[in-house]
Every structure is written in C-alpha cells, then in structure tokens.
Write the structure tokens for this entry.
Amino acid sequence: MTLTRGTGHSTVHTTEAFLDHMLTTLARYSGIDLEVDAVGDLRHHLIEDVAIAVGAAVAAELPATAARFGDRAMPMDEALVHCALDVGGRFYYRGPLPSSLYDHWMRSFAEHARSTLHLRVLRGTDRHHIVEGAFKALGFALRDAFVETGAVFSTKGSIATSVAG
C-alpha cells in the first residue's frame, strides 16, 4: 500500500467491491494518491487491516505544519453526514455509522492515523449512502487538514519522541 499527497488518483484492488469503492472515493475527495492491493482471510480482517494501513500512511505523510483540522458535511442523496477531524496526534473516534464493519473501519483508521474523528449521521435511510457520505466527508476533511500552513497549529508546539537503545 502506498499513499502520497497528490491529485486523488487511486489504484485499489481488494476482494471487497464496496471497500474498493470507498477507498477510491476517499482518495478522490482527499486529493491523496492511493495504491492498495490487499486480500484477507475474513471480510472483517481485510477491512480492518486496510483501515490500519491507510491510517498509518496518513499519519506518516502528514506535514508538521499542516492546518491539522478539517470539518465537512456531505449530502449523499437522502443522507447527510458530518465529519470533524483533527490530525494532531491524539486518537479518538465517535460515530457510529449504520454498518458495524465500516464503523470499525473508521475507528481503526482514526487510531492508526493518530486522529480525532467525529462522524455524525444527520439524516439518511440508505446505509450505502450514509457510509459513502462519511467517506466523502472524511476525504474533504483530510484535504483541509493537510493544507500546508508554514506553522505548527498548536499552542504547545510540536512534540517528538524517541526510544533510547
């Protein structure tokens, strides 16, 4: 799996068509170039492992002087989903989405992206539209959070850790 800031190009191949669709959507709306080639023993493990990998790649790609915050609401037909995001290094997730697998995707992504992620389903009846709206809102929020500002967006400055060994 590779992830770089770019134009939103994606090449995604998993054994889960809906996951492929959501990752392509995330790449497009975030402006992140994403390549994923994944298989898994169980559907749950595949979805979780991809979320972990994408989250870790987002954390690794984040510039120190990123805007850090993103906030978007996304209409998707009858659904309306709001995403508030802070990629500042602390994990927290609050949902839920009406799909336990994709709610778990968001939680695993947030944990490994070291991000605070709040998703609110404001309305909607079609689970596909709600989940897709969440991925689109997350994509736009990531696009906003990744904007280079030239300054660290924290009153505390930046923190680095190392392990002596």
In short: The two ends are 29 Å apart (CA to CA). The helical segments are 17-30, 43-61, 100-112, 127-145. The chain has one domain: 2-145. Residues 2-145 form a domain with the Ribosomal Protein S5; domain 2 fold (CATH 3.30.230.40).
